[in-house]
Amino acid sequence: MTGERKLQRTIGLPGAIVLGLGSMVGTGAFIAIGLAAGIVDDLVWIAVLIGGSLAMLNGLSSARLAARHPVSGGTYEYGYRELHPSIGVGAGWLFLTAKTASAATASMGIAGYLAESFGATSPPTWSLGLPILAMAALAVIGLRCSLLATTVLVSLAMAALLGFIAWGFGTPTIATPTEVSRPTPSSIDLLHAAALVFVAFTGYGRIATLGEEIRDPARSIPMAVVVTVLVSAALYLLVGLAATNVVGGAAFGDLAKAADGPLIAIAEAGGGGWLVIPLAIGACAAMGGVLLNLILGLSRVVLAMGRRHDLPPSLARIGNGGNGGPVIAIVVVAATVLIVATTGSMLTAWSGSAAAVLAYYAITNLAAARMSLRDGQRAAATASGLGALACIVVACSLPAAAWGPPIIALLAGLCLSVLSRVLRPASPSG
After folding, report:
1. Are 160 and 281 in contact (CB under 8 A)?
2. Domain span at residue 288?
3. 187, 294, 305, 393: which sits with the fewest CB atoms below 10 Å from its CB?
4. How many beta carbons lie within 10 A of that of residue 411, not counting itself?
């Protein structure tokens, strides 16, 4: 790794917070809350609290690791350095699997909200690919441009969501038929819903994966993680409670399962038709921001893996001039996201992402626990150990089908890493 080009530290604390929110506001508020409500109805707020608590534990572990290892790669680097290289490689592939699926879900979410706003039965094909191409182009142009775009997109999303929340709490609950046979959600259902919400919270991970480009990482990364998790948790809670107030818990769950754009469906059901266009704009902006930041984060992990020849080293090339970003990695990531978005379903992609996310955050917590024990920080080690245990418990609540795609992707990725190392050319630096 000697002589390799480094990324530039151009992001301050405000920028790190914006990037974190840009990765969390979109799919969490516009998609994940609806998916969770489809499982637990009006108990979605409990799922948000569980997911948020788990996210805070994991976020603090990630922040400590990122401050110690302020380089691109996130959990791939942490597992590699703190546990074992093979664990790091596995964590890297779990991350790539999880966040590729999340990025595909964001693209599908944009398409779904567009279709819902225009009354279409299914989203047009171009609405899946265009957002991916647009956000990849911004990522290629450079991080400063991406940060500016994220700021604009987050502002539009927040405005739309705050409008929905204000309307939701000010609208009388509409009458809905009582469903006598409606079963009470079980504890497993609550954990399953929490797992789906948790995926949205893990957008704070973009802060860690961009650690090589953040100024004063020891201070900025932990503060940015805490702020983004707290703001997002408050926002998710308010959206869920506002939606429940309008249509009731059971109807919220039904609408979430039936509609491509659940918040638009609720607005229409509650007589808030004037909200359709603002919500569509806000949803597209929010999930565009998520998509952009996921492409940025994924490309940095690909960059880190290319540096160690766990992926072809050509993927670690950094552009010249003012961009200085991993252009080849960005292009490969965007192409992969496009393939997943056009071949899968939203629930399948999101559930697979949840499984992979929980697996690699268990590794993150174990790495943080080992680092903390080595530093004599027993309280921090205990917190990280609890985070790892919580990830495992919540992961066990997911249906078996959710694990199929991540396991296949992990095995394929590990084979690719082995092949890349076997074909690695001889180098004086090793």
Report:
1. yes
2. 13-174+184-421
3. 187
4. 11
The CATH number of the domain holding residue 133 is 1.20.1740.10
Please tell me what DSSP assigns to residue 159: H
For residue 217, how many C-alpha atoms fall within 13 Å in the half-sphere facing its CB? Answer: 23
pLDDT tens track for 242-258: 988 888 877 787 777 76
Least confident of 24-38, 80-94, 205-219, 274-288: 205-219
Confidence (pLDDT) at 368:
94
Inter-axis angle of helices 33-40 and 187-201, to 10 degrees?
180
429 within some domain: no
> Phi first, then psi: what are they for 2, rounded to 5°?
-70, 145
**In this structure, is residue 399 part of a structural domain?**
yes
Q: How confident is the model at residue 1 (pLDDT cuts 50, 70, 90)?
A: very low
The answer to whether the CB of 28 falls within 8 A of the CB of 232 is yes
* Section 39-52 average pLDDT: 88
What is the tens place of the pLDDT at every residue in 332-370?
Answer: 999 999 998 888 777 788 888 889 989 989 999 999 999
Contacts for 307 with CB less than 8 Å, ≥ 6 apart: 1, 4, 313, 316
User: Considering the entire predicted model, what is its pTM?
Assistant: 0.80
Cβ 72 vs Cβ 301: under 8 Å:
yes
Place of tokens 């996921």: 294
How far the first Cα of the chain sits from its last, in Å, is 8
Round to whole Å and give the CA distance between 132 and 335. Answer: 8
Residue 5 in domain: no
State the chain's maximal CA–CA distance in angstroms: 73
Would you place residue 375 in the very low, low, confident or very high pLDDT band (cuts 50, 70, 90)?
very high
How many C-beta neighbours within 10 Å does residue 172 have?
Answer: 9
Report residue 15's pLDDT band, with 50, 70 and 90 as the boundaries. confident
Spell out the residues 6+ positions from residue 388 whose beta carbon is closer than 8 angstroms to its own: 362, 365, 366, 369
The answer to whether residue 6 sits within a structural domain is no
Q: How far is CA 33 from CA 9, 117, 227, 300, in A?
A: 34, 19, 20, 28
Burial letters for 2-36: b for 16+ Cβ neighbours within 10 Å, e otherwise?
Answer: eeeeebbbebebebbbbbbbbbbbbbbbbbbbbbb
- Letter string b/e over residues 242-268, b meaning 16 or more CB atoms within 10 A of that residue's CB: bbbbbbbbbbbbbbbeebbbbbbbbbb
Residues listed for the chain? 430
Amino acid identity at 234? A
